[in-house]
């Protein structure tokens, strides 16, 4: 595919089940001049399954800034190209935004080829409110930074969506219990569209217990969804507890609770001793 009006196609690929690669996605991948891939070996295996043979260009977090202008130069020369990630929709917790930004700045047409996205697939089966949701991607790896991020989200009313890995799922759930409260409704979607797909629901304490009790529930790739606080009063309390936790690091508990209550509008009794 080489025309004066070249296009950069952002192509979603399967998150597990290879049958989820759409006919349009297959056609685009067959006809572009080359494919920018997060992991060329992984993408090569996907293409081989569909009998597609195309030059692959490595584009990942470590080289995207440098590669973006080279790819844009090819687009300006009339070559249409595609960008894919290892699984799902590119740019969603994956590389690609620098390339897309550079292409758009250069006046290149950027066109989506929609398909699988783990976050949206998980929301579709979670049974949690989905009219508003906040996608947070992966939480920080270190515990202190992770808890700080969660505390900033404690008063959020929208459903929260996180990605998590097998070696941190238990720690992250424990931190969510500590910050959001044991009774907050949540859903864990694991290995979506794959052979061992599971979707667990309950409150955060119950989900943590299930994951701790069953080693199989600590394997694979996870989407964790947590329901937001339910009303204005709950939101004030959640924000008050977040503020209290930070202030209590530097002030006596009674002073921290008083200030947190004044700033958040939450009842002081609901904060003190948390």
List the topology elements.
Layout: E1 7-11, H1 23-31, E2 34-37, H2 40-49, E3 56-58, H3 64-76, E4 81-84, H4 97-105, E5 109-113, H5 118-126, E6 133-138, H6 143-153, E7 159-164, H7 169-180, E8 185-190, E9 198-203, H8 204-213, E10 222-226, H9 232-247, H10 253-264
Parallel strand pairs: 1-4, 1-5, 2-3, 2-4, 6-7
Antiparallel strand pairs: 7-10, 8-9, 8-10
List keywords for this structure.
274 residues; alpha/beta; Cobalt-precorrin-4 Transmethylase, domain 1; Methyltransferase, Cobalt-precorrin-4 Transmethylase, Domain 2; 3 domains; five-stranded mixed β-sheet; 10 helices; elongated
Task: Characterise the protein shown here.
- The strands form two sheets. The protein has a five-stranded parallel sheet with strand order 3-2-4-1-5, sandwiched between helices. Strands 6-7-10-8-9 form a five-stranded mixed sheet.
- The chain has helices at about 25-30, 40-50, 65-75, 95-105, 120-125, 145-155, 170-180, 205-215, 230-245, 255-265; strands at about 5-10, 35, 55-60, 80-85, 110-115, 135-140, 160-165, 185-190, 200-205, 220-225.
- It has ten helices and ten strands.
- Helices cover about 40% and strands about 20% of the residues.
- The model has no long low-confidence stretch (mean pLDDT about 90).
- Helix 6 (about 145-155) crosses helix 7.
- The protein is elongated, with a radius of gyration of 22 Å.
- The chain starts with 6 loop residues before the first strand and ends in a 10-residue tail after the last helix.
- The chain has about 270 residues and is α/β, with parallel strands linked by helices.
- The protein folds into three domains: about 5-115, Tetrapyrrole methylase, N-terminal domain (Cobalt-precorrin-4 Transmethylase, domain 1); about 120-225, Methyltransferase, Cobalt-precorrin-4 Transmethylase, Domain 2 (2-Layer Sandwich), CATH 3.30.950; about 235-270.
- The relative contact order is 0.12.
- A hairpin with a 7-residue loop joins strand 8 and strand 9.
């Amino acid at each position: 595919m080489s025309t004066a009006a070249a296009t950069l196609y952002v192509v979603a690929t399967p998150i597990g089940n290879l049958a989820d690669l759409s006919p349009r996605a297959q056609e685009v991948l067959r006809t572009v001049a080359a494919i920018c891939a997060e992991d060329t070996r992984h993408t090569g295996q996907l293409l081989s399954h569909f009998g597609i043979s195309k030059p692959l260009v490595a584009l990942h977090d470590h080289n995207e800034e440098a590669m973006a202008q080279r790819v844009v130069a090819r687009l300006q020369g009339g070559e249409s190209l595609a960008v894919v990630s290892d699984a799902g929709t590119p740019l969603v917790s994956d590389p690609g935004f620098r390339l897309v930004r550079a292409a758009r700045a250069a006046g290149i047409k950027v066109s989506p080829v929609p398909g699988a996205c783990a976050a949206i697939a998980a929301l579709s089966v979670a049974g949690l409110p989905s009219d508003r949701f906040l996608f947070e991607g992966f939480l920080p790896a270190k515990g202190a930074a992770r808890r700080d991020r969660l505390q900033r989200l404690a008063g959020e009313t929208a459903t929260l969506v996180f990605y998590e890995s097998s070696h941190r799922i238990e720690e992250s759930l424990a931190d969510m219990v500590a910050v959001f409260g044991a009774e907050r409704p949540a859903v864990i979607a694991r290995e979506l569209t794959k052979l061992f797909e599971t979707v667990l629901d309950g409150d955060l304490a119950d989900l943590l217990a299930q994951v701790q009790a069953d080693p199989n529930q600590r394997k694979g790739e996870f989407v964790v969804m947590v329901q937001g606080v339910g009303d204005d009063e709950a939101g004030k309390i959640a924000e008050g507890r977040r503020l209290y936790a930070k202030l209590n690091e530097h002030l006596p508990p009674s002073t921290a609770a008083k200030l947190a209550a004044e700033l958040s509008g939450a009842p002081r009794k609901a904060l003190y001793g948390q």
